[in-house]
Write a structure and sequence with these properties.
alpha+beta; binds calcium ion
Length: 418
C-alpha cells in the first residue's frame, strides 16, 4: 500500500496509474471523460455522451442544474453546420433518489429536426412530475461575437432550459498524459511530459443540453442524496408492418415516437473516466449498454475495484470511489444539503470550502486531478497541470461559457493547444 512521502513516490504512483489505465485500454488511450469511450458510440457522435454535470445552482441552492454534452471538438469555423442535435436520439437524465441502484425518475429531452441553419430546433422536455414543455435551441452564428444563450423558463414547473453549442468545459492534456504513459511503458517514466500544461479541449465547442429544476422535484426517500445518470437512446422503429405502408426513405426520416417503438440505450455516463480508463476494451460496449443495477450486482466491480487495489489505493479511498461507481451503481451522487457557491472554476479538491466532484460535478471541477488524488490516497495534487478551463465559465444558468467563435481580423490565438 502506498503512503506518499515525497515527489518520487508520487510520480511512481502516477506511473502505475498510467500503466494500469493503458494495460486495460490497449487500443484506445484515455481521451475525454467519456468521449468516444467505446466503438459502439465512436461512430455515433450525436449519441456519444462526453460529460454529465449535476450541481446546485450557486446563485440559488434550492435548484439543481443537470447538464449533458455530446459530440465535441466542433471547430469554430464549423459551428453553423454542426450545430444541430440529433432528432432521433432521446437524451435522458435518470434520477436515483431512494438509496439503491434503481432509477426512480427520468427526464427526457428530444429535438425536432433542423429545418434551416438560421432557425432553432424545438426541444421537448418531459419532467418527472409529468409536466412537459418545449423550448428553442440557440441558433449559431459565424460572427466573431456569439449569439446570446436562449434560456427558456417554464413557470409551471420552475424549470429552465438551454440547448446549443458552448465552449467545451472539459479540460485535460490528452497528449501529455499519453506521452507520459508511453514513457512509463518504455521503462523510463518522464513526469516532464505532464508539464506541457496544454488543454486538448481548449478552443473547441460541444453540444450542450442544460436543465435547471427545483431540488424538491428530485428528492425521494433517500432525502438529500440523489444520483444522476446520463443516457442516450435511439428509436428502433423498424417494425415489420411498416414495410408496406411506407418506403424506407420515408421511415428513415420519421422521428415521431409511436406505440411499439423501442428505445435502445446507446451510451451512458455518470462518473468521469470509468469507461474510458478502467473498463477493459472488450467490455466497453457492454458497459455502455448496461445499467447502474448491473453495476451494483457486481458486473463490473472487478474491473473498477481490482486496479485500484493493485495500485495500493487504500480501503478508505476505494470506498470513496466505489460509493459513486459501484456500490449503488454508477451515478453522480449529489448532496442537496451541501451548500454550493461556485461553479468550481480554478478550484482544486484541496481548496478550502471545495464542494464539487465527487459530490455531483460542477462545470469547473478538475475531475481527472480529483480521481488521481483519490487513487493516490490523497497524495497527488498536481495532476496534468491543466488546472482550469481555457475561458471563464458563466455566472448564471446555464453556467457554461459561450461557444468559441471564428476570430476577428487580427486575433491570432484561437485558444487551441494541440
Ligand atoms: Ca461516451
Ligand atoms: Ca432507487
Ligand atoms: Ca474549454
Ligand atoms: Ca487537471
Amino acid at each position: 500500500m502506498f503512503r506518499f512521502m515525497n515527489n518520487k513516490r508520487a510520480i511512481l504512483a502516477m506511473a502505475l496509474v498510467a500503466v494500469i489505465a493503458v494495460a486495460l485500454t490497449p487500443a484506445r488511450p484515455v481521451t475525454a471523460a467519456d468521449h468516444a469511450d467505446s466503438t459502439s458510440v465512436a461512430g455515433d457522435p450525436g449519441a456519444d455522451i462526453a460529460d454529465v454535470f449535476a450541481f446546485l445552482d450557486p446563485n440559488d441552492n434550492s435548484k439543481v442544474v443537470l447538464a449533458i454534452d455530446v459530440e465535441g471538438f466542433v471547430v469554430p469555423s464549423e459551428l453553423l453546420n454542426l450545430s444541430f442535435f440529433a432528432p432521433e436520439v432521446t437524451y435522458r437524465f435518470e434520477i436515483e433518489n431512494t438509496g439503491d441502484a434503481r432509477p426512480d425518475q427520468r427526464i427526457d429531452i428530444t429535438f425536432s429536426e433542423q429545418t434551416a441553419r438560421n432557425q432553432p430546433q424545438t426541444a421537448t422536455i418531459k419532467l418527472p412530475n409529468g409536466r412537459r414543455f418545449t423550448a428553442p435551441t440557440t441558433v449559431q452564428t459565424l460572427n466573431a461575437a456569439p449569439n446570446p444563450f436562449v434560456v427558456t423558463n417554464d413557470p409551471a414547473s420552475g424549470a429552465s432550459f438551454f440547448a446549443g453549442l458552448t465552449d467545451d468545459p472539459f479540460y485535460f492534456d490528452i497528449v501529455g498524459f499519453n506521452r507520459f504513459v508511453a514513457s512509463v511503458l518504455a521503462g523510463m517514466p518522464n513526469p516532464a511530459a505532464l508539464t506541457r500544461g496544454r488543454d486538448s479541449f481548449a478552443g473547441y465547442n460541444i453540444h450542450m443540453i442544460a436543465l435547471e429544476v427545483p431540488a424538491s422535484m428530485l428528492r425521494g426517500s433517500a432525502g438529500n442524496i440523489i444520483g444522476v445518470n446520463g443516457i442516450t437512446l435511439r428509436k428502433n422503429n423498424r417494425r415489420d408492418n411498416d414495410d408496406e405502408r411506407s418506403g424506407i426513405e420515408e421511415r428513415s426520416r420519421d422521428t415521431k415516437e409511436r406505440p411499439g417503438d423501442k428505445l435502445i440505450q446507446v451510451d451512458r455516463m455518470a462518473t468521469p473516466a470509468v469507461n474510458t480508463a478502467l473498463i477493459p476494451f472488450p467490455r466497453k460496449n457492454e458497459y455502455n449498454a448496461s445499467t447502474p443495477v448491473d453495476d451494483a450486482a457486481g458486473r463490473f466491480a472487478g474491473d473498477i475495484v481490482g486496479p485500484l487495489t493493485a495500485l495500493g489505493t487504500n480501503s478508505a479511498n476505494i470506498g470513496i470511489l466505489a460509493s459513486v461507481a459501484v456500490a449503488n451503481g454508477d451515478y453522480l451522487r449529489l448532496n442537496l444539503a451541501t451548500p454550493n457557491t461556485s461553479v468550481g472554476f480554478g478550484e482544486r479538491i484541496t481548496t478550502p470550502g471545495y464542494t464539487g466532484f465527487p459530490n455531483g460535478r460542477r462545470p469547473g471541477d478538475d475531475t481527472i486531478d480529483v480521481l488521481l488524488y483519490f487513487i493516490s490516497n490523497q497524495a497527488l495534487t498536481t495532476g496534468d497541470n491543466v488546472n482550469s478551463n481555457d475561458v471563464p465559465l458563466g455566472s448564471a444558468f446555464p453556467f457554461f461559457a459561450p461557444p468559441q467563435q471564428p476570430r476577428a481580423t487580427g486575433v491570432i490565438d484561437d485558444n487551441t493547444r494541440n
